[in-house]
Amino acid sequence: MAPRICGTSTTLASLDACLQTSSYLAAHATRSFSLTCRNEKITKGRYEMVKWIKEKAMNNFDKNHPTYLGPHVDQPFPSNPLFRSQSVLSESMKNRIYTQVMDHGVAMKAVSEEMQVDVRRVAAVVRLKELENHWKLEGKKFATPYAKAVMKMLPQSKWAQGDMNIPHEPINDIPVHKLSMQQLFVPVSESRHFTREDAAKAFHEGLLSADKRSPQRELIEIERQAAEEGGDRATSIEEFRKEAQEAEEEYAAELARKSELEDAKIKKSRKGRFEFRIKRYNSETVGKYGRARDATGWRYGQALQDRKRGMVKIPTSVP
């Protein structure tokens, strides 16, 4: 609303100023209710993105490997150079690991050395493949399209017989123990040969050396012999595979023997669709407080502390 004119002696200049002020206030008050259509033109950023996709991205696109926007091959996020995408095992590599272990009976350590995959990952692949085959027999459905889409977005490690394959991961890495994270100054004479055993004892009396904590310490011995004695590495690898096979067969036989002994101690009686299992047990071997882990009825009697309010239920330290 325009301001009211108080008197008749108002000049024309003041009237023009009043009209301009009233028009500005009216336009400013109704600007938020404008019915003007949105801008249909493409923004500059979107235009540059479409231009980059048509000119450069399509030329570098590879259907067999993931194409990332970062400057490096393994950098998916351009603004985060610290994040690098790690390779995963391809489906063909998983199938070969499972075939070698389950069908051909090759030791898992030998498969780990041959395909350069950690022995714990080899064991995990075998277990998951066994579960997958079990689900197939049960007729369960799989999210195969989703799995394929995820695998296309990740770099994959592939393995071919007789080729110079790129190692998937280091197979002899060990976790850093908390006792070895301290800084020590140990005086040692120049004539003394300071080994990894001495370094472990310097940190703690009960700490094992890096060689003994390695998942495959036999490979360290092979490399040491090849470096010091100049032996044939291929011959040593063949001996390592034979020893790993014999050790795994002995371990499997020991597990089977223990299982047979346990089954011999149990009397089984089947009544219809039920089977009763009876086993002799010494009631005196229940531990100091009567709550030994392997004792009969250790869950009953004294209440556990896992459901009490205020109790810390998460690990507070890493062993």
UniProtKB/TrEMBL annotation:
GO cellular component: mitochondrial small ribosomal subunit
GO MF, one annotated term: structural constituent of ribosome
Residue stretches in coiled coil: 237-264
Any matching Pfam family: Bot1p
Keywords on record: Coiled coil
Single GO BP term: mitochondrial translation
PANTHER family assigned to the protein according to its UniProt record, in alphabetical order: 37S RIBOSOMAL PROTEIN S35, MITOCHONDRIAL, SMALL RIBOSOMAL SUBUNIT PROTEIN MS45
The protein's name: 37S ribosomal protein S35
